[in-house]
Design brief:
The protein is an all-alpha fold and 147 residues long. It has helices at residues 14-18, 29-38, 55-59, 66-79, 85-97, 105-113, 128-138, 141-144. The chain folds into two domains: 5-79, no CATH class; 85-144, no CATH class. The protein is elongated. The structure holds iron/sulfur cluster (2 copies).
């Protein structure tokens, strides 16, 4: 389904010119908007290169909710099982450890050195991991990220 907003895009390119991510990656947000109107973009890796900084959305002269649209397109892609391997791995970490990026021994040692205790998460309360897993399962998250 297409967002009504994107149909008003007149391809001015302000979004692309404002996009910090596009300066370093192949992301061309103007093209994503254009393509999403006429075809399924779930397979496009550029969909995942947006950092959701909202620059484009703030500047679009048509007031198109570009970043929200990218997030919607991503959700659509995930529902079709299209998700980059790196992101799938992060999701797996979340399910297994309760953290997208769990602390390892090296980082724990660094924290200790500067006087930081364990964060108020499953690192500090390992028993809470079971609850985190139950919550994620209840949302169907584990099924969504299966290969
Ligand atoms: S800034 Fe808005 S109108 Fe211009 S190309 Fe991007 S989405 Fe289209
Ligand atoms: S929200 Fe995404 S697409 Fe828009 S400017 Fe930021 S990185 Fe680029």
């Amino acid at each position: 389904m297409k967002s009504k907003d994107t149909l008003t895009c007149f391809q001015c390119g302000t979004c692309t010119a404002s996009c910090p991510s596009g300066r370093y990656t192949s992301l061309n947000v103007r093209r994503i908007v254009k393509d999403s109107i006429k075809k399924d973009v779930s397979d496009e890796p550029e969909l995942w290169m947006c950092t959701t900084c909202y620059n484009c959305m703030e500047r679009c002269p048509r007031g198109i909710r570009i970043t929200d649209e990218i997030l919607r397109l991503r959700s659509e892609a995930v529902r079709k099982g299209k998700i980059l391997l790196a992101h799938r791995n992060v999701c797996r970490y979340l399910i297994e450890t309760g953290h997208a990026i769990p602390l390892d021994d090296a980082h724990n040692a660094m924290r200790e050195k500067i006087g930081l205790s364990l964060p108020e998460t499953v690192h500090k309360y390992p028993k809470a991991l079971r609850e985190v897993k139950t919550l994620l399962k209840s949302t169907g998250f584990d099924e969504l990220i299966k290969e």
